[in-house]
């Protein structure tokens, strides 16, 4: 089963959690990195390209600041990341050069992927690095980001990078051997779930926060990352990073960790970007009839089906589309601003020009820019 899903994999994203990369005293663990380099070199010999998304900058920078616990303030965290990031890259360089692998540091902010031109630019840089046989090592640019610009956690970043580089598999290496029915740190009866075909509310409830002082999002953000790549038609595996050979065994189709099967109806890259990378600037509530034609027949959203607009946004913004009960069922890019939509909603498209004095087209959201969630 797993082997079948892995057959066409040629490019992978491997996300490394802070807990995997650092040892007890919070220094970078060189043994882990040299094992990782060995496993990635072998994959490369087998024709598989790797992009690494690595956490660990904050944890690696902590000792230099004399911090024994998680930094308390944002400037402290950013200072720790600034010190730690260069240590991290030095450690990667040392370990990877032993295997004749060259690494490249790539630091991203959310804006780099939200802006379509910057997204494309980041993509060509990464493609070029890979074409040269270099292993990109990506992290969030912690030193400069403020809340509005944050990916928040590297699980999310790794899912967006999987879309960016069109990898066929995301592997999340963490400090636990997979997704359990509950957090095994607090529930001794928890058992591992080997295969997930769809993310249910029950699974989301089971996935809790981080159990360590270095991890960020726990299993909850890993599940959210898996959900994102599944919608892109890509598989994900969450497995133990510290156990030697796990990556190799996972790539060979052995039953390690938890595997997430790709969704059968997947989104193309642009629609995935609309659904998961852009931040909604407001919402549009539609009536039952509009919900039906959008959800069932994949049609465009016309002004006549819109009941209410929430938030202020411009033409070209990403918005949530809500059903009459307020539940979000789609996201899309609008062709009219919130103020224009307030004036044309509940009207026929043929009346747009008369009401506004101009028209861009019949649709408020064209079906090519609309994603069902
Ligand atoms: N259902 C669950 N199954 C497995 N681990 C869970 C679950 N719920 C919460 N966790 C916690 O998630 C942690 C892994 O996330 P995190 O600490 O953020 O690691 P990383 O630094 O690799 O991102 C585990 O050590 C565990 O304590
Ligand atoms: N960018 C941060 C990591 C943030 C993060 O998500 O950490 P983790 O949960 O360990 O993957 C750092 O390098 O310390």
UniProtKB/TrEMBL annotation:
<dbReference type="InterPro" id="IPR001057">
    <property type="entry name" value="Glu/AcGlu_kinase"/>
</dbReference>
<feature type="binding site">
    <location>
        <position position="15"/>
    </location>
    <ligand>
        <name>ATP</name>
    </ligand>
</feature>
<dbReference type="GO" id="GO:0005829">
    <property type="term" value="C:cytosol"/>
</dbReference>
<comment type="similarity">
    <text>Belongs to the glutamate 5-kinase family.</text>
</comment>
<feature type="binding site">
    <location>
        <position position="55"/>
    </location>
    <ligand>
        <name>substrate</name>
    </ligand>
</feature>
<comment type="pathway">
    <text>Amino-acid biosynthesis; L-proline biosynthesis; L-glutamate 5-semialdehyde from L-glutamate: step 1/2.</text>
</comment>
<dbReference type="InterPro" id="IPR002478">
    <property type="entry name" value="PUA"/>
</dbReference>
<keyword id="KW-0963">Cytoplasm</keyword>
<dbReference type="InterPro" id="IPR011529">
    <property type="entry name" value="Glu_5kinase"/>
</dbReference>
<comment type="function">
    <text>Catalyzes the transfer of a phosphate group to glutamate to form L-glutamate 5-phosphate.</text>
</comment>
<feature type="domain" description="PUA">
    <location>
        <begin position="282"/>
        <end position="365"/>
    </location>
</feature>
<dbReference type="GO" id="GO:0005524">
    <property type="term" value="F:ATP binding"/>
</dbReference>
<dbReference type="GO" id="GO:0003723">
    <property type="term" value="F:RNA binding"/>
</dbReference>
<protein>
    <recommendedName>
        <fullName>Glutamate 5-kinase</fullName>
        <ecNumber>2.7.2.11</ecNumber>
    </recommendedName>
</protein>
<keyword id="KW-0547">Nucleotide-binding</keyword>
<dbReference type="InterPro" id="IPR005715">
    <property type="entry name" value="Glu_5kinase/COase_Synthase"/>
</dbReference>
<dbReference type="InterPro" id="IPR036393">
    <property type="entry name" value="AceGlu_kinase-like_sf"/>
</dbReference>
<dbReference type="GO" id="GO:0004349">
    <property type="term" value="F:glutamate 5-kinase activity"/>
</dbReference>
<keyword id="KW-0808">Transferase</keyword>
<dbReference type="InterPro" id="IPR019797">
    <property type="entry name" value="Glutamate_5-kinase_CS"/>
</dbReference>
<dbReference type="InterPro" id="IPR015947">
    <property type="entry name" value="PUA-like_sf"/>
</dbReference>
<keyword id="KW-0641">Proline biosynthesis</keyword>
<dbReference type="Pfam" id="PF01472">
    <property type="entry name" value="PUA"/>
</dbReference>
<feature type="binding site">
    <location>
        <begin position="216"/>
        <end position="222"/>
    </location>
    <ligand>
        <name>ATP</name>
    </ligand>
</feature>
<feature type="binding site">
    <location>
        <position position="142"/>
    </location>
    <ligand>
        <name>substrate</name>
    </ligand>
</feature>
<dbReference type="InterPro" id="IPR036974">
    <property type="entry name" value="PUA_sf"/>
</dbReference>
<keyword id="KW-0067">ATP-binding</keyword>
<dbReference type="InterPro" id="IPR001048">
    <property type="entry name" value="Asp/Glu/Uridylate_kinase"/>
</dbReference>
<dbReference type="InterPro" id="IPR041739">
    <property type="entry name" value="G5K_ProB"/>
</dbReference>
<dbReference type="GO" id="GO:0055129">
    <property type="term" value="P:L-proline biosynthetic process"/>
</dbReference>
<dbReference type="Pfam" id="PF00696">
    <property type="entry name" value="AA_kinase"/>
</dbReference>
<keyword id="KW-0418">Kinase</keyword>
<feature type="binding site">
    <location>
        <position position="154"/>
    </location>
    <ligand>
        <name>substrate</name>
    </ligand>
</feature>
<feature type="binding site">
    <location>
        <begin position="174"/>
        <end position="175"/>
    </location>
    <ligand>
        <name>ATP</name>
    </ligand>
</feature>
<keyword id="KW-0028">Amino-acid biosynthesis</keyword>
């Amino acid at each position: 089963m797993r082997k079948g899903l892995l057959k066409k994999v040629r490019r992978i994203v491997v996300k490394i959690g802070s807990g995997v990369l650092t040892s007890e005293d919070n220094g970078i663990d060189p043994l882990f990195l040299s094992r990782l380099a060995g496993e990635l070199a072998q994959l490369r010999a087998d024709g598989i390209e790797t992009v690494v998304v690595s956490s660990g900058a904050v944890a690696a920078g902590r000792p230099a600041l004399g911090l024994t616990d998680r930094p308390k303030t944002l400037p402290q965290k950013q200072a720790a990341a600034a010190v730690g990031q260069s240590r991290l890259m030095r450690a990667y360089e040392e370990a990877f050069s032993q295997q004749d692998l060259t690494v490249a540091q790539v630091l991203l902010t959310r804006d780099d992927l939200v802006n379509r031109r910057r997204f494309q630019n980041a993509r060509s840089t990464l493609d070029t690095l890979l074409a040269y046989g270099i292993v990109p090592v990506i992290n969030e640019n912690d030193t400069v980001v403020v809340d509005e610009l944050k990916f928040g956690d590297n699980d999310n970043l790794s899912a967006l990078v999987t879309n960016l580089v069109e990898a066929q598999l995301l592997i999340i290496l963490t400090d636990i051997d997979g997704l359990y029915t509950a957090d095994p740190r607090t529930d001794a009866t928890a058992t591992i779930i080997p295969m997930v075909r769809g993310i249910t509310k029950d699974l989301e409830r089971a996935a809790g926060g981080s159990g360590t002082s270095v991890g960020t999002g726990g299993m909850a953000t890993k599940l959210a990352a898996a959900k994102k790549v599944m919608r892109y038609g890509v598989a994900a595996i969450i497995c133990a990073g510290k156990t030697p050979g796990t990556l190799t065994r996972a790539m060979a189709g052995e039953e390690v960790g938890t595997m997430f099967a790709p969704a059968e109806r997947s989104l193309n890259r642009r629609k995935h970007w609309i659904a998961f990378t852009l931040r909604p600037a407001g919402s549009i509530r539609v009536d039952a009839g509009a919900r039906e034609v959008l959800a069932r027949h994949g049609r465009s959203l016309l002004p006549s089906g819109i009941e209410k607009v929430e938030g202020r946004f411009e033409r070209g913004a990403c918005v949530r589309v809500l059903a009459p009960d307020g539940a979000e069922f789609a996201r899309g890019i609008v062709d009219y601003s919130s103020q224009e939509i307030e004036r044309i909603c509940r009207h026929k498209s043929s009346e747009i020009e008369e009401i506004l004095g101009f028209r861009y087209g019949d649709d408020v959201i064209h079906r090519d820019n609309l994603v069902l969630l």
